[in-house]
Write a structure and sequence with these properties.
Elements (H helix, E strand, L loop, with lengths): L10 H7 L14 H16 L3 H8 L3 H19 L3 E5 L11 E4 L6 E6 L9 H5 L18 H13 L9 E6 L13 H8 L9 E6 L10 E6 L11 H23 L8
Parallel strand pairs: 3-4, 4-5
Antiparallel strand pairs: 1-2, 2-3, 5-6
Length: about 270
């Protein structure tokens, strides 16, 4: 209850679901495909010796579970894209801890901070007081104004920037579950430039955003990558990393265009 009767969980997912709080509040995983992807993600977590450490959060409520899965998915994505030496909980600034550290093509270690804001971050104070979050993400016939870019950048400024090191390449990754994803959203380049020009963002080497499409497979997620050309020299991402992520973002952009034209293949998503 309430895992769907036609969805079979793998060994790691069964351990995760055992006594999990979210089992009584949502139907996760919602398909056999997602269950299979979940199992592969958890196997990877065990391979990098993180499964046990993540287990309490994976068994918590749906919001905590999704944030934990977002963090694991970012590490799995980086691994599948050739990043190496992926380690958990690197020390950050102000006695804080980051999510991951990784290298790419003999680069220095990159400090990686992951943020996973969800649709609840977009609710107004009035909506929260009225109990809107208890209704779930989607409500039939609900219309709303959304500003996902502003929400993401505010979360980054408040919760990620204070952790960034002075003497390390820094990368911020967002794996959100908001009402609308900024991946594929047009005309944001100038707005990124405006934020990056702020002194508070001088340590941010770049921002990569995931569009998961309700998938936990690194080969099915889409990304948007924006490099901060105004970053401090000591905090800039290595050129090889910038070129690699830009290339992947271009591939994902083409996939989005194919989908919008109706010429994509389902196995691509």
């Amino acid at each position: 209850m309430p895992i769907l009767p036609n969805v079979q969980l793998g060994p790691y997912a069964r351990v995760m679901a055992n006594d999990a709080k979210w089992r009584y509040h949502d139907e996760f995983p919602s398909s056999q495909l997602l269950a299979n992807e979940l199992e592969k993600l958890l196997v990877f977590a065990d391979e990098i010796r993180c499964f046990e450490a993540f287990l309490p959060r994976l068994r918590d409520n749906a919001r905590a579970r999704n944030a934990a899965l977002g963090e694991l998915l970012t590490a799995f994505y980086l691994h599948k894209r050739g990043f190496e030496n992926i380690t958990r909980d690197p020390p950050g600034a102000n006695f804080k801890i980051g999510e991951w550290s990784a290298t790419f093509s003999n680069s220095p270690a990159i400090f990686i901070e992951v943020k996973s804001p969800d649709w609840q971050a977009e609710l107004s104070d009035a909506e929260r007081l009225a109990g809107r979050k208890t209704l779930g993400k989607h409500v039939d016939l609900e219309a709303r104004f959304v500003a996902p870019f502003d929400v993401l950048m505010d979360v980054i400024l408040r919760n990620a920037v204070p952790k960034l090191l002075d003497d390390s390449p820094n990368l911020i990754i967002t794996a959100d579950d908001m009402f609308v994803s900024i991946v594929g959203m047009p005309h944001l380049e100038m707005r990124f430039s405006e934020w990056f020009a702020k002194p508070d963002f001088s340590k941010v080497g770049g921002i990569m955003s995931f569009r998961t499409n309700y998938s936990l497979d690194p080969d099915r997620v889409l990304i948007r990558f924006e490099v901060n050309h105004s970053a401090n020299v000591s905090n800039r991402l290595p050129p090889a990393v910038i070129a690699h992520l830009n290339a992947q973002a271009f591939v994902d952009s083409e996939r989005l265009k194919s989908r919008d034209k109706g010429t994509f293949h389902p196995e691509m998503f």
